[in-house]
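A quick aside before the break. I want you to see a complete sequence-to-structure record at least once, exactly as it would be stored in a machine-readable document. Don't worry about memorizing anything.
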Amino acid sequence: MPDQDQLNDFLEALETAGRPAKNSILRAELGWDEPLYEEVKGELVAKRIVVRGRGRSDSVWLVGAEPVAKADAPTSKGCEVKTLGNGTANLGFEAKLWLTADKLRNNMDAAEYKHVVLGLIFLKYISDSFEEHRAKLLAGVGDYEGATQEDPDEYKAENVFWVPAEAHWSHLQANAKQPTIGKLVDDAMVAIERDNPRPPI
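That is the input. The structure line, written in tokens, reads:
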């Protein structure tokens, strides 16, 4: 089975080669023998990141990248946005995001993994909302004049979760490489639930 570096190398070479890319050119660019190339390509096809050419075509491309209609202006980060025929946009890094998520998932079942990811997205969202509202309170402009940023009621009045210090995203991010990160995330969720009781119906 191909390793993560080989999958990443294939995707980088595919992005450089353009869409669609001929297999022979891509294989030469990578410097791989045919069995290795086919194994890596097969893995990416199975993960629905790469599509094989139709019919007798000897090409591959990233999923969703074939029917490129026009190229829009590059974004501020230099990432070229392609408008696809079906009205969606391809930013060019979706395949890498998918591989990263797959790597994080490791041996966990995808149906199980969604619970982990959704919890992290929830934590990030409420922490960002909290920090945004905190900045407004600190500025003390308009309706927020004289408000204190340490009063949970100031946040709850605006339908913003009160996020205790141990649940701030910056705290979790700073400790992300610690072996106790799982417990820290669990504790953050418990603290948020504790400090934001459900209102009576």
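Two observations worth writing down. Residues 66-87 have pLDDT under 50 and may be disordered. The longest strand covers residues 59-62. We'll return to this after the break.
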